[in-house]
Amino acid sequence: MCPETDADDAVQDAFFKAYHALPRFRDGAPLRPWLLRIVTNEARNRRRSAGRRHGLALRAAAREPRDAAVPGPEATVIAAEASAELMAALNTLRDDDREILGARFLLDLSEAETAEALGLPRGTVKSRTSRSLARLREALNAAQVSR
Amino acid sequence: MSDQPMRLAARDDAGLEAMLRGSAASIAWPTASPTGAPDIATRVRVRLVAAPPPAARRPWAAWRPVRRGLVLALIALLALAAIAGAVGLGLPGLQLILSEPPASPPPSVAPSRTPPPGALGSSLRLGDNVTLEQAEAITGIEARLPSDPSIGPPDEVYVDRSRGNQVAFVWAASETLPETREPGIGLILMRFEGELDDGYRQKLIGEGVTVERVTVDGQPGFWVSGDAHFFFYIHEGRGHIDDGRRWVGDALAWTDGDTTYRIESALGRDATIALAESLE
Fold it and tell me: What is the ipTM for the molecules in this complex?
């Protein structure tokens, strides 16, 4: 899952294309969303051409507690399992659901940045986020029922 | 934890958002600089050096809108953000694209303080090492050099016709010319043919790199100082000319007519501008 080489290649290709597209970059426009859009498109193209689906994976090693405020081992295991269940459910969603949830909450992009990166109207980001969260909840329920 | 999904599914939107945000740190994100491998910025740069720009490109607006995608791409944005200190600045005749150097440059890119064997500029990919007379004969352009007698004629001359008929003059470090980032080198003067471009672009500048607008004999130019950076040149209609060889320290770039000049020196801004204005 989540092969780093694919993501690295997507970033490389995106930067390569961005470099060639710089002359068409609009003066005064923010650079970050422009780059986000290029990377997003590149990854979409790569994924479509590969015809495969990758999901997000959690780190194999749990992080070590850093101070007394960090939950104890039992709570850490619970949190790790919850994250694993959440990622598993997320990975079952449609691409557009995963994109919007990934952009908004995993990458912590603002609605405006998400709109720019995904090429969506800002109002669509808001409504799609709500629907995608609902589908994530359904996926979590479905996972429970299948056990 | 068989009840975990139920507990998650029972959360409201805010709860799920919080869980997603909280899980972000645990995800095996790709890294910008995998252990033991060149960082992404360096690999992109190598590709830019190796691959010429496409002969024909589709207009940006004509690209087919894409509706499906991959969260992984967005993940990669984190790496992008780390290395996207790209700067685009425009001069009549060229755009400068400055890139921040990688945090941990691979040995093949990081400058060594030991001068390489052989000619001073032999490791700088400046082109063919020729004499001054040969450079003028090859390019058909009379060389313009600093008039200060304490600087004297260049120690080495290089020609690379594939890069805008580029000529590079190299002086060894001396009492007059303190050593630049390049070991043993006190001054590099480059000239190449540019095309007029009135567009001026100001984009983000990476931390540690300062770009000042200056004039050289009344011609517009930029003084770039601070941290090391890569240099690229883009010629409208002719694609890019990628210096692509190494890091660059303090540098002055300016355009005079259809020719663009660049000086790398450790003399500081004002002295470098004075040197540039002394070319004859």
Answer: 0.74
